[in-house]
Amino acid sequence: MSVLPTGLYQPGQSVLHRLCPWVKVLCLLLLLVAVVTTSTIWGYVLLAVLCACLIVLSKLQLQDVFSSAWRLRWFFALIFLMNVCFFSPDDPWVEWWIFTPSYAGLLQAVHVVLRVFLLLVMSNLLTATTAPLAMTDAFHVLLSPLKLLRLPVGQIAMILSVAMQFIPTLFEEADAIQKAQTARGARFDSRKLTEKAAAVLPLAVPIFLAAFKRADELSLAMEARGYRAGSGMGGRSQHLAWRDGAAFVLCAALCAVQLFIL
Question: Tens of pLDDT along 136-190?
């Protein structure tokens, strides 16, 4: 857990940093649709080129963008093997017990891993270039039509924003607890699954306790600063610029290309 926690905002003056927050969220949704519907090599190449351009425009370090993917490397390996071995029983390479690895399973595994990887990278770009308060305002603007249904839009936006910001906080807590457990003799680097499981399981309770403690501290801090559950939030005005329209049109065009051409 020595890499930077995922989702931390990195201040900057790049093109992505200066985009309107709610436009960035809309662009991310369009790109997610494009990723999920991609099924061709050229589609993945186009998305990979776009991600590379966004990383350059964001002026972020590669560690900030790819940290979550590195943390989930074993998860990627697991879903890859599961799709290869279980996705399709037709025309398997070999058959052994419940395992039927096949070419169709291999293709599905590649699709799943690439899609999850691209989704993680794009989500990291959003959270790393958007301040927490700006993200809250973006959710408030996008959810504002729900006011017609008399839903507490301000509270929903606050909940979503706080939940997103708790992710890197929990990583930091887990890192601190892991170091403390290592000092007490826990063997996280052991290759034996039994020893690794025995070392990981004691992390669960302290992490949950730390999460509840931080949630309680946050609620007290919000109340001390005048926030009340029924007061809601008024989203700050977010002025649109030409780059916001250009970003939205570009993402919409890419989504349309993925849906109807590639």
Answer: 788 888 888 888 888 877 777 777 777 766 766 776 777 777 777 777 776 666 6
pTM of the model: 0.73
DSSP-derived 3-state class of residue 133: helix
Let me know: does 32 contact 256? Beta carbons within 8 Å.
Answer: no
Cα distance between residue 101 and residue 194, in whole Å: 27
Containing structural domain, residue 228: 15-260
The reply to whether 9 falls in a domain is no
Task: Give the Å distances, CA to CA, from 92 to 8, 78, 81, 82, 112.
Answer: 44, 19, 14, 14, 19
The Cα-based distances of 3 to 12, 65, 69, 172 in angstroms read 20, 11, 11, 10
Please tell me the total count of domains within the chain: 1
CA distance 199 to 174: 13
- The pLDDT, as a whole number, for residue 2 is 45
Domain annotation covers residue 194 = yes
| Residue carrying structure tokens 């074993």 | 74
Q: Rounded to an integer, what distance in angstroms lies between the CA atom of residue 98 and that of residue 197?
A: 25
